[in-house]
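Changelog-adjacent note: as of this version, every example in the card shows the full chain rather than a window. The one below runs 557 residues end to end.
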Amino acid sequence: MLDRSRATQLGVAAVLLAALGVLAIAVSQDWQWLVDLDRRARSAVDWGVDDAGLQRVLLSVEDLAGTLAMTAYTLVLAVAMFLKGHRRASYFTVGVMLSTALATTGLKTLVGRARPEWQQLDEFLENGAYPSGHASSIAAFTGIVLVLVTMLVRRQGIRRLLGSAMVLVAVAVAADRVLLGRHYPSDVVGGALLGASFVLVGLALYSPYPRSHALKIEPLPEAVPSSKRLAVVLNPIKVEDVEAFRSTVAAMALEAGWREPTWHLTTPEDSGTGQAELASVEGADLVIVCGGDGTVREVCAELAGTGIPVGIIPAGTGNLLARNLGIPLYIRAAIDIALTGQDRAIDMVKVTGDAAGDRDADPVGESRSEERGGSPGGAGSEDEPPAPGIDSHFMVMAGMGFDAAIMEGVNEDIKRKVGWLAYVISALKSLMFPVTKVELSVDGGEWTKHRARMVMVGNVGYLQAGMPLLPDATIDDGLLDVVLLNPRRFLSWIPLAVRVLAKRSRTDDTINRMTGRTVSIRAGVDTPRQLDGDSIGPGRELHMECIHGRLLVRVPR
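Full-length structure tokens:
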């Protein structure tokens, strides 16, 4: 119903309001069939209040769905939406709930129906019975939650779970009103019709969808005239309904002044490189990529240096690049940023390294170059670098050790079902990843020896859940930030996490930091490695170089 036309929404609302009106007339005129139906509820009331335990449950439900409680739920939801940047959704929530409450009060006064005479509780309610205020408010609130869940939650399973839970709550509240004898069944039906109709009217008159962030901003100047050719690289497994996504992008693109987009779908064999190259050859003025961090990384690398901006629609589990660029995770808002945002030049990091088994199992500090009498490596070394098994790039981060073991240990089936919780499960299994002896060289300097469970090199500062692991990192400063973590025992992770979250600058054997344009890492044994959250297999070396301002991406104005 959220994406239906305004005419459809108003039409369904009109049908519900008409049914509400007919029911109100039947109540006012005491139509016999309705009186007979309502009086059958008395037997249910006798059953409900005879059991003391059930009566306590019913009274608790009454309080939890009362006026004060519903007001509190509404305010919490509205404030949460407002703080998350969904201001129209916040106003929609308050508007629908307030309108429903006022309409319920007015209709109670107009109809003036007395409460059932079989209320058998110490506290009797005297105000009008038709329609039920509990039923109208919970129906409206359920409708609002269903709208927001449909709008904001990507995973169909989670949407169904939340939607089913809210419908069950609404049914429980409706049954509670009848079992306590507070209302006739027709009162409850009338309340449900009223709440549902006001949700639809609200949708028709004030959409909770956010408006384009560029509506109130002056148009950006164009240095080079654009033909407004748009290409979209899509990882189809990252969206539930490919056709619905395509129609949404096409409609928003046309509204923003772009041509009908051309589409390039990734495949298991090509996760974005070939599609981005084709879009570039076809002369796209903007390439939008929708997928996880891996797809985004491949597309960005291919378009780096071309001058073609990349719009990012985060549809993965981590979405670290989007998070660090301030791109919203809500898909429609991200599409808007991609189409109407401003371009920002960001850094890209070139990565080389060995593959597992490329080198003999020499301990750190006893490489074959040193056995020959050469220097330990780094810029200016006369040693020949090892034949690279890895020749790649990253936009966000690279890691060796614990973090890479997490990525390597993620169960893909669990990840598809519960998303980021799969990483939590993998992290718990890998917390005591063994300490590794490593050497680091920054900007071609002297190699330094360390012991660490994890070495991370970042182009950005924040990881999942806003973890400020590299708080000084900036994606366009031309520098890489390095952090080494070495908690000695299992419980040592707790104070280490506190230090990270507090952004404390002190370094020691537990947490150490470095910064430079180039970073080289050598481990004593084959160690798990990852680039932008994708495992690249174990190895002993990574050599990274930050290429300043290599890529244009679309960010909020």
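Structural remarks: Residues 360-388 have pLDDT under 50 and may be disordered.
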